[in-house]
């Protein structure tokens, strides 16, 4: 049994994961398309202003690629969208730190400025937050499928059976946490 089979179709966190991936993907897609439409130099380290941020052709292309990944995650939905959001959000935050380190050097191949670094941090945190919604918290409700998956021993005997089946298949059923 796949974990996605255990989530109800109208499960609220799944809708939030999907909406967050789609929304952030569209924002990045618009930014990337505006940069490519302006015909920016591909490897310029000075960049041109696009939607208030500095950009070049390479950054526009990377923005479109990130948007495509997020939009695919939104189309797939569920746990996949959540995982994609968390991974892409983390990469945006990491990109902010890396580009902050090379801000005023010749290694600034994405033409970042301080506003881009701030945008990268904020967008990364927003995307990751959408991915973690309803999945990561100290106080998830008992009917949350992520909580149920992590705590099968706390469920009534009839409810714990479907959740224990995948662990048995992988050979980790008898291990303690």
Automatic annotation (TrEMBL):
The keyword Membrane applies. Keywords: Membrane, Transmembrane, Transmembrane helix. The keyword Membrane applies. The chain crosses the membrane at residues 21-45, 57-77, 84-103, 109-133. It comes from the Bacteria. Residues 156-167 have a biased composition (Low complexity). Residues 154-177 are annotated as: Disordered. This is DUF4383 domain-containing protein. It comes from Kitasatospora griseola (Streptomyces griseolosporeus).
